[in-house]
């Protein structure tokens, strides 16, 4: 039986920071450097983060993380794979996220997509996520995908991965 692998979308497959940087630049003419964001949340970093995140189309237009498409394709063959994304807080994101996944990861069947409010309800063997709040309550192995908001403090017994190439080295 294949191990169940749960993969987050925002900050893992989709580059939410790049999108926020671009939105803020278009809106306010400010282009922030990702290197200066370490240890701060998206809402603390970007003045209008919630305005951007709640806007129609924000999640539909997120850039794809480097290496994620090909590596996820390989993982899909080896594992019982599910994309698990918290979508209920931002209702506009539901349809955007579905069509984004359909466009960039067409090999992921709609039955492999879980949109939820809390990830504490999902069960699996391995979870890749960028938020401690999701990994800390997960019973399986946690892979912490590096993002500026999770760089402060220790890794809380999760294995840190800095890229999809790190994920491949561990799971493939």
Automatic annotation (TrEMBL):
Supply the Gene3D superfamilies for this chain: Deoxyribonucleotidase, domain 2, HAD superfamily/HAD-like
Q: Which domain of life is it from?
A: Bacteria
| Stretch forming the signal peptide | none
Give the InterPro entries listed for this entry. Answer: 5'(3')-deoxyribonucleotidase, HAD-like_sf, HAD_sf
Q: Which PANTHER family does this entry report, sorted A to Z?
A: 5'(3')-DEOXYRIBONUCLEOTIDASE
The text of the family note is: Belongs to the 5'(3')-deoxyribonucleotidase family.
- The identity of this protein, by name, is 5'(3')-deoxyribonucleotidase
Organism equals Flavobacterium cerinum
């Amino acid at each position: 039986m294949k191990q169940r692998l749960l993969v987050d979308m925002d900050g893992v497959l989709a580059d939410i920071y790049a999108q926020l940087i671009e939105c803020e630049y278009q809106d306010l003419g400010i282009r922030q450097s990702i290197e200066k964001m370490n240890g701060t949340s998206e809402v603390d970093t970007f003045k209008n983060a919630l305005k951007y995140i709640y806007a129609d189309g924000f999640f539909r237009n997120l850039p794809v993380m480097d290496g994620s498409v090909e590596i996820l394709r390989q993982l899909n063959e080896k594992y019982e794979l599910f994309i698990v994304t918290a979508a209920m807080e931002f209702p506009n994101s539901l349809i955007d996220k579905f069509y984004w996944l359909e466009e960039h990861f067409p090999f992921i069947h709609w039955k492999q997509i879980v949109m939820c409010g809390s990830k504490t309800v999902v069960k699996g063997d391995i979870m890749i996520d960028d938020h401690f709040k999701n990994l800390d309550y997960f019973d399986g192995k946690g892979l912490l995908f590096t993002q500026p908001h999770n760089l402060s403090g220790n890794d809380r017994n999760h294995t840190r991965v800095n890229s999809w190439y790190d994920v491949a080295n561990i799971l493939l």
